[in-house]
Design a protein that fits this description.
Layout (H helix, E strand, L loop, with lengths): L1 E2 L6 E12 L15 E8 L6 E3 L5 H4 L12 H18 L6 E5 L8 H4 L4 E5 L3 H9 L4 E2 L5 H11 L2 E7 L8 H11 E12 L1 H7 L11 E2 L2 H9 L3 E9 L5 E8 L7 H13 L4 H27 L4 E4 L3 H10 L9 E3 L16 E3 H6 L4 E4 L5 H7 L1 H4 L4 E4 L5 E2 L1
Bound molecules: ligand DWN, S-adenosyl-L-homocysteine (SAH) and zinc ion.
Length: 405
């Protein structure tokens, strides 16, 4: 029996996706034979409402000097982080010469907004290749995993922080208690933690099961995040739903009693109750919805193939690794996956070994159908792909429902 990583209560599994490879482990044919697999199992803790992986590969297998995800590949996300930084600056950087610390700072997509404004900043990023891009652009970065020990060192060298930020990284860290303890040490009395992650409410409502993969150890709700920080003398003071990554939540957390709590927090908790995010049955239903989604997608792809049509995958996302492996989608159904990230191109998708090719190959010979693995960027992608659609190209999507657009 697994124990909850947050409250240590016994926890039940509600789904297994079977054997899965490293989601960002794009590889070469000579590496196929020694590819690493683990069982992607997910559980819900009835005690503290935290949804979590029950098995996760060691962190060095996921985050290293060849990490394949570079944040700045999306222009829309760059705009989003400009807004995020503006929100923090306006509301929480009131003291003279403030310090902003960000974990999972990647290639600097967020921190450059502070660096450009001459604000003291520090990025913590364990994946060396992406950290180097940030450093080359003048963003102060420490190449390390964040935990309570590192927090002490940062306070010693730089003093306490006014804002501690994290986008799509808190949910990646299984040792959340060490992270929370570190944040507690690092924040000034009026300092705030502002972080964003894919929101459990959206995953449940949209059956966006592809958010579930090795890197995502947790699937947060306001309830589970509040429970976690309460154990460390901190409280959620504000929550702001976001459209990005298929539906995310921005949480603002502060030392207990340092700020008044906005009405949005209670409102969201009520909404979570009505969605059943604190009930085990919700996740049994989610499993059935996921199984249905798989059945429909496989049926559709096989039908399209039978009709002699070409299907290409659009964007070799981490999420696509869950979809292709869980649904058994190989080169037989999807000719190749087009992606703009140089480090992924010329390699093969994890587990299912579909070729990943440069975007130009999509552009120069449009397929009949594009399977939108980057559905969370649909607005950005569809607005620039008019030339694919105009002569009859069609999108296949599977979130929130399997359909042809
Ligand atoms: O949480 C995480 C999020 C923030 O980023 C990480 N664990 C890993 C990663 O997840 P992902 O790989 O699912 O992220 P995206 O942003 O959905 O995928 C981006 C991929 O799509 C990149 O490989 C670039 C590609 N892409 C493309 O080929 N054409 C993206 C866009 C916008 C495009 O137009
Ligand atoms: N914040 C960026 C990157 C998200 S990808 C964005 O939203 O686009 C997750 C990032 O977190 C990766 O760059 C990974 O190397 C980093 N990361 C993983 N574990 C970490 C840890 N313990 N401390 C700090 N960063 C971590
Ligand atoms: Zn728990």
């Amino acid at each position: 029996m697994n124990k909850c990583l947050v409250c240590a209560a016994p926890i039940d599994q509600f789904i297994s996706f079977g054997k899965m490879p490293i989601a960002n482990g794009f590889l070469k044919p000579e590496e196929f034979a020694k590819e690493y697999f683990f069982e992607l199992r997910v559980g819900f803790c009835s005690q503290c409402a935290m949804v979590q992986l029950l098995e996760q590969p060691e962190r060095e297998k996921m985050f290293h000097a060849n990490y394949a995800f570079f944040s700045s590949t999306s222009k829309f996300m760059a705009e989003h982080f400009k807004e995020f930084a503006g929100f923090v600056k306006e509301k929480y950087l009131k003291s003279p010469d403030p310090l902003v610390v960000e974990i999972g700072s990647n290639d600097g997509i967020m921190l450059r907004n502070f660096a450009n404004a001459g604000i003291r900043h520090l990025g913590i990023e364990p994946s060396e290749n992406v950290a180097q891009v940030a450093m080359r652009n003048g963003i102060r970065t420490v190449c390390s995993f964040f935990d309570a020990e590192l927090a002490k060192k940062i306070v010693f060298e730089h003093g306490q922080a006014d804002a501690f930020l994290g986008a799509n990284v808190m949910c990646h860290i299984p040792y959340l208690h060490s992270v929370a303890a570190g944040i507690k040490i690092l924040l000034k009395p009026k300092g705030v933690l502002v972080f964003e992650d894919p929101y459990l409410g959206d995953i449940v409502q949209k059956t966006s099961y592809d958010q579930i993969y090795d890197e995502h150890a947790f699937y947060f709700s306001v309830a589970s995040v509040s429970n976690l920080f309460a154990q460390h003398g901190m409280q959620v003071i504000d929550v702001l739903p976001q459209d990005v990554h298929g539906g995310s939540m921005r949480y603002v957390v502060a030392h207990q009693g340092a700020y008044s709590v906005t009405e949005a927090v209670e409102k969201q908790r009520k909404l979570e109750e009505s969605l059943g995010l604190q009930r085990k049955e919700t996740f049994d239903q989610l499993r059935r919805n996921i199984e249905n989604s798989r059945e429909k997608l496989v049926k559709l792809l096989k039908e399209v193939k039978r009709n002699g049509k070409r299907v290409v995958g659009y964007a070799a996302t981490s999420k696509s690794t869950t979809v292709t492996n869980y649904c058994g989608i190989t080169e037989e159904l999807v000719e190749f996956i087009s992606d703009t990230t140089p480090i992924k191109q010329g390699k093969y998708s994890p587990g299912t070994h579909i070729p990943v090719r440069p975007y130009d190959e999509f552009k120069k010979n449009y397929p009949d159908y594009a399977l939108l693995f980057g559905w969370n960027h649909a607005k950005e992608i569809m607005s620039k792909e008019q030339d694919f659609v105009a002569p009859g190209g069609k999108w296949i999507v599977y979130v929130p429902e399997v359909k042809v657009l």
